[in-house]
Amino acid sequence: MVTIYDIAKACGFSPTTVSKALNGYSDVKEKTRRLIKQTADEMGYYPNSQAKALIKRKAWNIGVLFQDGENIGITHPLFAEILESFKKVAESHGYDVTFISNKIGDTRLSYLGHCKYRQVDGLVIACTDFYSDEINELLDSDLPIIAIDYSDERVSCVTTDSMAGMTLLYDHLYDLGHRDIVYLHGELTYITLDRIKALKKAAEKRGESFNDEQLIEAKYYSVKTGYSVMKELLQRDERPTAVMVCDDFTALGAINASIDSGLSIPEDISIVGYDGIQISQLLRPRVTTVKQDAEKMGALAAEKLVRLIEQKDEERETLVMLPSIIIGDSCKNKE
Amino acid sequence: MVTIYDIAKACGFSPTTVSKALNGYSDVKEKTRRLIKQTADEMGYYPNSQAKALIKRKAWNIGVLFQDGENIGITHPLFAEILESFKKVAESHGYDVTFISNKIGDTRLSYLGHCKYRQVDGLVIACTDFYSDEINELLDSDLPIIAIDYSDERVSCVTTDSMAGMTLLYDHLYDLGHRDIVYLHGELTYITLDRIKALKKAAEKRGESFNDEQLIEAKYYSVKTGYSVMKELLQRDERPTAVMVCDDFTALGAINASIDSGLSIPEDISIVGYDGIQISQLLRPRVTTVKQDAEKMGALAAEKLVRLIEQKDEERETLVMLPSIIIGDSCKNKE
DNA sequence: AAGTAAATCGAAATCGATTTCGAAATAATA
DNA sequence: TATTATTTCGAAATCGATTTCGATTTACTT
C-alpha cells in the first residue's frame, strides 16, 4: 500500500508537503506540486479513507436501513427504485452508501450502535414498521436522518400525500359508479392508518362512508397474501364491485386470485394498486394505480440528507410529494 | 463520542487495559474487566471502526459493483435477489456491504481506486459487460473478488451452466414439436456468447442446426427492447413458432408485443425466458423459463469471498450451478 | 545592501484504536 | 523470609492521514 510517507521519501519532501500538495494548499510551489502529483500517480497512490475519516471526523459514508415486513429487503420494487436514485445522488455528492444491519458478525448490535461503529455521516430509513425500540433509538439520536414514507417530528421525511393518493383512487372508482368497495390494506403501521383515514375522508367528501367492514388486512409487497386474502373475499356471498389494494405487488396477487376464480378483470371486478412501480405498467392488465415518484423521492431524500449533514443550521423538514394517478386497464364502469 | 480514553479516565485504568478488557485479553483481572465493560455500556461506547481498521488493516467491509447495460442498478430483479442473499450471508460473517461507484464527489475515480480508497476487504462484481478497462484493472489486481455470471481465470466466479440451461429450454421446445425457433439474445457479452454456443450445440444434439439468422439482438432486462424487437420479428412474412428470450423481463416485452399484435400465448406462439426471477411466476401467462437459483448464488458467492479474504491459501474457483426448468404456461405443442 | 514582506516547507500533535514489552504487584515455592 | 513464578497493568509505538505554527528561503522595496 502506497502512503504519503512513501511519496515523501520518493521525491524528497516531507509528508506534510505531500499532503498539502495533494489537497490544493496554496503554500506549495507549483513545481513541487507537479512533482508530487506525478509521483503519486506513478506509484499508484490512493488516500486511505479510514485515516482521513479519523482525523477529519467525517466518513463520507451514508447508511441505508431497509426493513420490511416480508423481509424481502432490496428486492422490494419501490424501495429498490428509491434507493437506486438515492444512491446516484449521494454518490454525486461524494458519499458512499453502506447497508446497516443490526448485527455485526455473531454479536447483535443495535442499529444506532452499528451507525456509530461505522461512523456514517447520515442515515436513510425505509421501513414498514417504525415503531420498534431500535428505530426509536435512532429517531431520538442526533444522527442526521431522512425517513422514507413516514412522518415524524424528530427527523426529516420524504413522503407522499396519502390524502391526495387515496382520493385520486377513490374518486376514480366512484366516478366509474363503484359504491361497494373494499380496501385490502397493509400491516397497521403509521402509513397504513394514514391511508385508511384518508380513504374515509375521501368517501365522506362524496357523501359516502367507508366502514371498518370494508377493510381487510393484507400485507405490503406480498403477492401471496394478496392472493389468499382475495380468494377469501371472493367466497363471500356478495362480492364488492371494486377492490383497492395497498400496493401494486399485493394487487397482483389479488388479480391472480380473481382470474383463478374465473373472474376477468376489469369486466367482473375492478382492482387498483398503489405505488406505480415499473412492473405494474408492464403487466396485462395494466394496473390502475397511484404513482409515487420513486426516482424523485430518492433524489430529494439524498439532497436533503446531504444538506442536513453539511449545513449545521439546516432544519428538519417533511417533504410531501403529490402523487398522480395512472389509469390502467384494471378498472371498468360499473354497469 | 465516547472513546477508550474516556472510559479509561472514568474508571482509573489505562486505555491499554480498557482495550484489552473489551477484547478478551487474558491479562486483565476479572473484576476490572467487569468494571470496564459496565462503564463502557453506561457511557454508550462503540468502537470506532475507522481507528480499528487503520491499525488492524482490515475494514470488515465488502464492496459491491453492479453495472448493467440499462443502468437500472439495484432494480435489476436478478441482481437484487442475488445481492439480498449475498448481503445476509456477508453480514452474518461480520462484513458490511458498500456500493462501489466510479466517482467520489465530482472527481472520477477508477473502481480499483475506489476500492483502495475505501479499503474494502473484497469485492463482488455483477456486470453485463466485463470487458471494460476498469473491470480488467480490477480482475488483474490482488483484491479478493468474486464475479457473478462470468467466468475468468483471474478471479473466482459463481455462474450457472449455460449448456445445461439452454439445453433444458431447447429440448423442451423441441419436444413440443418446435423447429422454427428464434433466440432474442442480450448484448454480445461473454455470457451471451456462451449461451449462443450452448444453444447451437443443443440443437446439434437433436440433429438440428441453429443458424445465425435465428439470432436477433435484444438487451438484457429491457422490457422495451424486448417489445420492439418482437414487434419487428412479427412483421416478417413467416413468424417462428417459438421464441427464446435472454431473460424473463425482456421476455415480458416480447409477450406484450405478441398480445398487442393480436396473438395469444401460448396458442399462437410459444415464448420462453431465462433466470426464473420471482415475478416471472406471478405473471399470466406464467413464463416457462430456466431458474438460476439467485438465493443460492448470492450465498455461495458470499461464503467463497469470505474464505478468499480470510484464508490466504484459499484458491480461486469457478462455482458452476445447475439450473432447473420451470414449466409455465407460455409454451404449447406445435400442432 | 539592508530591511521587510511573501512564499515555501516541515516538525510535531492529533484522530481512536491495537499491541509489544517491560514494570509492578501478587502468589507460589523453597 | 527470600526467591521465583505468575498476574496484572501501562508507556509508547503504530496505522495513514491532516493541520497548526514556526523556521527558512526567496522576492521585493527603498
TrEMBL record, chains A, B:
GO molecular function: DNA-binding transcription factor activity; transcription cis-regulatory region binding
Species, as recorded: Paenibacillus paeoniae
Keyword Thylakoid: no
PANTHER family reported in the protein's UniProt record: LACI-RELATED TRANSCRIPTIONAL REPRESSOR, TRANSCRIPTION REGULATOR, MEMBER OF GALR FAMILY
Keyword DNA-binding: yes
Start and end residues of each HTH lacI-type domain: 2-56
Protein name: LacI family transcriptional regulator
Keywords, alphabetical: DNA-binding, Transcription, Transcription regulation
PROSITE patterns: HTH_LACI_2 (PS50932)
Record Gene3D superfamilies: 3.40.50.2300, lambda repressor-like DNA-binding domains
